[in-house]
Design brief:
three-stranded antiparallel beta sheet; 9 helices; Rossmann fold; six-stranded parallel beta sheet
Length: about 300
């Protein structure tokens, strides 16, 4: 079986959880770890090798003293930077994390130009845009609103008393306060959401859905100090689709043309080994209005980040 080289930059809660998750994947043969904290990468390397040994897996784990040493990784997950505190909006991190992302981009550009780079550092959409701007990486994306869509699917399933597997939904726009639940394209047990709701005598508004999704992260951060397992489950699926050329559809952040306007936003994309293709999606008038508000929000955050480096 062909195996791939995955690098993880930033070994905080998300980075460690992702590294452990990917170490269990049969298609990952090499993991490279990097963090600015001295000794952290070496300590995690030992943990991962012990875990792999217990499972009988041959896994190569490398560490870097500088990012310039990273060469031709198939996929790079970027989660370096300051995490969000319970009282903070993701935008509050723009100036703090912009320099971190800019430095990473400059370090990777010479030897990892063709790598898939998945940015998860918040504010993730602006940081991914900055990564593309600084490094001109053709395959750099924001992990975006796929996570929000999964959270929305779980919330709808719990509200309606059905299995999450019986719900199909998505979120576009911004991974942040301007996220856009696409309720017009949500299905429950094979029926459009609003038809299902009318039959059950239940009401769900787009604002209620937006607040429910946004509160999930805040609640977890307040109790656990940060999100990890939930987001990493989503990042794993994105990574798998990219590495194994699955051409599966995800809502992630990249450049897309909507109504004749090119913008950076979360939209539905088909993800494959060397392919990031936008897909057709119909939004209703309310969703479209909220989508363009999200586009403007991302643009403002990006400009704030750019001005701080």
């Amino acid at each position: 079986m062909v195996t791939y080289h995955v690098a993880v930059i930033g070994l905080g809660l998300i980075g460690r959880t992702y590294a452990h998750a990917m170490s269990s994947e049969p298609y990952v043969g090499c993991l490279t770890l990097y963090d600015v904290v001295p000794g952290l990468a070496e300590a995690l390397k030992l943990e991962l090798m012990i875990s792999a040994c217990a499972r009988g897996k041959d896994l190569e784990v490398r560490t870097l003293s500088t990012l310039e040493e990273l060469d031709q990784a198939d996929l790079v997950l970027v989660c370096a930077g300051s995490p969000r505190k319970p009282h903070m909006d993701r935008k509050d991190l723009a100036a703090v994390n912009a320099k971190v992302i800019s430095d990473i981009a400059e370090s990777l550009v010479k030897t990892n130009q063709e790598s898939h780079i998945v940015v998860v550092t918040n504010p993730v959409d602006a940081m991914a845009w900055l990564m593309k701007e600084v490094g001109n990486f053709p395959y750099a994306i924001s992990s975006g609103t796929f996570l929000d869509g999964v959270r929305l699917r779980l919330w709808i399933s719990q509200k309606l008393g059905v299995s999450p597997n019986e719900v199909s939904t998505l979120v576009v726009g911004e991974h942040g306060e301007k996220l856009v639940p696409v309720l017009s394209q949500t299905w429950v047990r094979g029926k459009k959401l609003f038809k299902f709701l009318s039959e059950k005598g239940i009401e769900v508004s787009i604002e209620e859905a937006r607040k429910a999704v946004s509160s999930m992260a805040r609640d977890v951060i307040a109790k656990l100090g940060g999100t990890s397992t939930g987001p990493v489950g989503c990042f794993r699926e994105i990574s798998k689709a990219l590495l194994l050329d699955e051409n599966r559809e995800f809502t992630i952040g990249s450049f897309v043309e909507v109504d004749g306007v090119k913008c950076f936003a979360n939209w539905v994309f088909s993800l494959g080994r060397k392919s990031i293709k936008p897909c057709a999606l119909d939004l209703d008038e309310v969703e479209k209005k909220l989508f363009w508000e999200a586009v403007e929000s991302i643009k403002q955050t990006y400009q704030q980040a750019l001005s701080s480096i």
